Amino acid sequence: MWEDPGPNMCQPSTDHDIKKQALCYFRFFVYREHREIRFLGHPRIGKYDEFSERYSDLQKLDRTAFARVWHEVSSETDPALIMKPFQELTGLTLQNIEEAFRKGEWHPAKAEVKVFGGPKHADIALHAIRLGEAIQAGRWDDQVPQELAVLKNINHNCPRPSRQEYKSLLEDLTVLEFPLPDCCLLIGPE
Known about the structure:
By secondary structure, the chain is an all-alpha fold. It has one domain (16-175). Helix content is 53%, strand content 2%. It has eight helices and two strands, in the order αβααααβααα. It has helices spanning 18-36, 55-59, 63-72, 79-90, 94-103, 119-137, 143-153, 162-175, and strands at residues 46-47, 105-106. A two-stranded antiparallel ribbon has the order 1-2. Helix 1 (18-36) packs parallel to helix 4, helix 3 (63-72) crosses helix 8 (162-175) and helix 5 (94-103) runs antiparallel to helix 6. The chain is globular, with a radius of gyration of 16 Å.
Protein backbone atom coordinates (compact mmCIF):
# COMPACT_ATOMS: atom_id res chain seq x y z
CA MET A 1 0.00 0.00 0.00
CA TRP A 2 1.23 3.48 -0.86
CA GLU A 3 2.14 5.69 2.08
CA ASP A 4 1.89 9.46 1.98
CA PRO A 5 5.47 10.82 2.08
CA GLY A 6 4.35 13.82 4.10
CA PRO A 7 4.57 17.57 3.58
CA ASN A 8 8.34 17.72 3.05
CA MET A 9 8.21 15.83 -0.26
CA CYS A 10 6.78 18.84 -2.06
CA GLN A 11 8.18 22.30 -1.68
CA PRO A 12 6.53 25.55 -2.78
CA SER A 13 7.00 26.45 -6.43
CA THR A 14 9.95 28.58 -7.47
CA ASP A 15 10.84 29.99 -10.86
CA HIS A 16 13.59 27.43 -11.42
CA ASP A 17 11.22 24.47 -11.15
CA ILE A 18 8.33 25.81 -13.26
CA LYS A 19 9.30 23.44 -16.07
CA LYS A 20 9.29 20.39 -13.82
CA GLN A 21 6.03 21.41 -12.22
CA ALA A 22 4.33 22.17 -15.56
CA LEU A 23 5.39 18.82 -16.98
CA CYS A 24 4.17 16.99 -13.86
CA TYR A 25 0.77 18.66 -14.09
CA PHE A 26 0.58 18.11 -17.84
CA ARG A 27 1.37 14.39 -17.52
CA PHE A 28 -1.15 14.03 -14.70
CA PHE A 29 -4.05 15.75 -16.47
CA VAL A 30 -3.39 13.94 -19.75
CA TYR A 31 -3.48 10.71 -17.74
CA ARG A 32 -6.59 11.65 -15.81
CA GLU A 33 -8.70 12.87 -18.71
CA HIS A 34 -7.84 9.80 -20.78
CA ARG A 35 -8.72 7.65 -17.75
CA GLU A 36 -12.02 9.51 -17.31
CA ILE A 37 -13.05 9.02 -20.96
CA ARG A 38 -13.10 5.25 -20.47
CA PHE A 39 -16.68 5.68 -19.22
CA LEU A 40 -17.81 7.00 -22.61
CA GLY A 41 -20.39 4.61 -24.01
CA HIS A 42 -21.50 3.24 -20.66
CA PRO A 43 -25.31 3.37 -20.95
CA ARG A 44 -25.81 4.95 -17.52
CA ILE A 45 -22.86 7.33 -17.69
CA GLY A 46 -22.23 9.02 -21.01
CA LYS A 47 -22.33 8.87 -24.76
CA TYR A 48 -21.16 10.83 -27.75
CA ASP A 49 -22.19 9.18 -30.98
CA GLU A 50 -19.27 10.75 -32.87
CA PHE A 51 -16.96 8.25 -31.12
CA SER A 52 -19.36 5.30 -30.71
CA GLU A 53 -16.91 2.99 -32.51
CA ARG A 54 -14.58 3.37 -29.48
CA TYR A 55 -17.15 2.36 -26.85
CA SER A 56 -16.33 -1.35 -26.57
CA ASP A 57 -12.56 -0.77 -26.47
CA LEU A 58 -12.86 1.98 -23.85
CA GLN A 59 -15.03 -0.15 -21.59
CA LYS A 60 -12.40 -2.90 -21.51
CA LEU A 61 -9.82 -0.57 -19.95
CA ASP A 62 -9.26 -0.51 -16.20
CA ARG A 63 -7.47 2.25 -14.35
CA THR A 64 -4.22 0.30 -14.02
CA ALA A 65 -3.85 0.34 -17.81
CA PHE A 66 -3.65 4.12 -17.55
CA ALA A 67 -1.17 3.95 -14.66
CA ARG A 68 1.06 1.73 -16.82
CA VAL A 69 1.02 4.31 -19.60
CA TRP A 70 1.64 7.12 -17.12
CA HIS A 71 4.69 5.20 -15.89
CA GLU A 72 5.96 4.95 -19.50
CA VAL A 73 5.86 8.75 -19.87
CA SER A 74 6.75 9.71 -16.30
CA SER A 75 10.05 11.30 -17.33
CA GLU A 76 9.08 12.42 -20.84
CA THR A 77 9.37 16.16 -21.54
CA ASP A 78 7.86 16.41 -25.04
CA PRO A 79 4.07 16.97 -24.81
CA ALA A 80 3.44 15.08 -28.07
CA LEU A 81 5.32 12.04 -26.75
CA ILE A 82 3.46 12.27 -23.44
CA MET A 83 0.09 12.18 -25.21
CA LYS A 84 0.95 9.55 -27.83
CA PRO A 85 0.66 6.36 -25.72
CA PHE A 86 -2.58 7.57 -24.13
CA GLN A 87 -3.97 8.23 -27.61
CA GLU A 88 -2.90 4.75 -28.66
CA LEU A 89 -4.56 3.25 -25.59
CA THR A 90 -7.92 5.03 -26.01
CA GLY A 91 -7.90 5.76 -29.74
CA LEU A 92 -8.74 9.38 -28.89
CA THR A 93 -6.70 12.56 -28.84
CA LEU A 94 -6.99 15.01 -25.98
CA GLN A 95 -8.87 17.26 -28.42
CA ASN A 96 -11.33 14.39 -29.11
CA ILE A 97 -11.77 13.95 -25.36
CA GLU A 98 -12.44 17.65 -24.81
CA GLU A 99 -15.05 17.49 -27.59
CA ALA A 100 -16.72 14.38 -26.14
CA PHE A 101 -16.88 15.92 -22.67
CA ARG A 102 -18.26 19.19 -24.03
CA LYS A 103 -20.72 17.88 -26.64
CA GLY A 104 -21.55 14.43 -25.31
CA GLU A 105 -24.48 13.45 -23.14
CA TRP A 106 -23.30 12.81 -19.59
CA HIS A 107 -25.61 11.57 -16.84
CA PRO A 108 -27.52 12.54 -14.97
CA ALA A 109 -28.54 14.44 -18.11
CA LYS A 110 -30.58 17.16 -16.38
CA ALA A 111 -28.21 17.65 -13.45
CA GLU A 112 -25.89 20.63 -13.34
CA VAL A 113 -23.20 18.50 -11.70
CA LYS A 114 -22.24 15.36 -13.59
CA VAL A 115 -20.73 12.28 -11.99
CA PHE A 116 -18.44 11.65 -14.97
CA GLY A 117 -17.47 13.75 -17.97
CA GLY A 118 -19.36 16.89 -18.82
CA PRO A 119 -18.30 20.52 -19.11
CA LYS A 120 -15.95 20.59 -16.12
CA HIS A 121 -13.85 17.80 -17.60
CA ALA A 122 -14.04 19.51 -21.00
CA ASP A 123 -12.49 22.59 -19.39
CA ILE A 124 -9.76 20.49 -17.76
CA ALA A 125 -8.93 18.86 -21.10
CA LEU A 126 -8.91 22.26 -22.82
CA HIS A 127 -6.48 23.75 -20.28
CA ALA A 128 -4.29 20.63 -20.44
CA ILE A 129 -4.15 21.09 -24.23
CA ARG A 130 -3.22 24.74 -23.75
CA LEU A 131 -0.55 23.86 -21.20
CA GLY A 132 0.95 21.30 -23.60
CA GLU A 133 0.99 23.86 -26.41
CA ALA A 134 2.64 26.44 -24.14
CA ILE A 135 5.28 23.92 -23.02
CA GLN A 136 5.93 22.94 -26.65
CA ALA A 137 6.30 26.61 -27.63
CA GLY A 138 8.63 27.32 -24.70
CA ARG A 139 6.33 29.99 -23.24
CA TRP A 140 7.77 29.52 -19.72
CA ASP A 141 7.37 33.16 -18.65
CA ASP A 142 3.75 33.80 -19.57
CA GLN A 143 1.45 31.05 -20.89
CA VAL A 144 2.88 28.12 -18.92
CA PRO A 145 2.47 29.81 -15.49
CA GLN A 146 -0.99 31.04 -16.52
CA GLU A 147 -2.27 27.58 -17.55
CA LEU A 148 -0.53 25.97 -14.60
CA ALA A 149 -2.36 28.33 -12.22
CA VAL A 150 -5.69 27.46 -13.85
CA LEU A 151 -5.09 23.71 -13.59
CA LYS A 152 -3.93 23.95 -9.98
CA ASN A 153 -7.30 25.41 -9.02
CA ILE A 154 -9.67 23.89 -11.56
CA ASN A 155 -12.86 22.20 -10.39
CA HIS A 156 -14.08 18.85 -11.58
CA ASN A 157 -17.10 16.66 -10.87
CA CYS A 158 -15.69 14.43 -8.20
CA PRO A 159 -16.29 15.57 -4.63
CA ARG A 160 -12.88 14.27 -3.64
CA PRO A 161 -10.07 16.70 -4.40
CA SER A 162 -7.69 16.17 -7.30
CA ARG A 163 -4.97 15.51 -4.73
CA GLN A 164 -6.80 12.29 -3.86
CA GLU A 165 -6.86 11.32 -7.53
CA TYR A 166 -3.10 11.79 -7.64
CA LYS A 167 -2.81 9.51 -4.61
CA SER A 168 -4.95 7.01 -6.52
CA LEU A 169 -2.36 7.06 -9.32
CA LEU A 170 0.44 6.55 -6.80
CA GLU A 171 -1.44 3.61 -5.29
CA ASP A 172 -1.90 2.06 -8.75
CA LEU A 173 1.82 2.48 -9.44
CA THR A 174 2.61 0.78 -6.13
CA VAL A 175 0.28 -2.14 -6.91
CA LEU A 176 2.00 -2.50 -10.29
CA GLU A 177 5.36 -2.36 -8.46
CA PHE A 178 6.51 0.68 -10.44
CA PRO A 179 8.74 3.30 -8.82
CA LEU A 180 7.02 6.44 -7.57
CA PRO A 181 7.54 9.66 -9.52
CA ASP A 182 10.09 12.25 -8.48
CA CYS A 183 7.52 15.01 -8.84
CA CYS A 184 4.58 15.73 -6.65
CA LEU A 185 1.33 17.52 -7.27
CA LEU A 186 -0.37 19.53 -4.60
CA ILE A 187 -3.68 20.03 -6.33
CA GLY A 188 -6.72 21.53 -4.73
CA PRO A 189 -7.76 21.42 -1.09
CA GLU A 190 -6.55 18.68 1.23
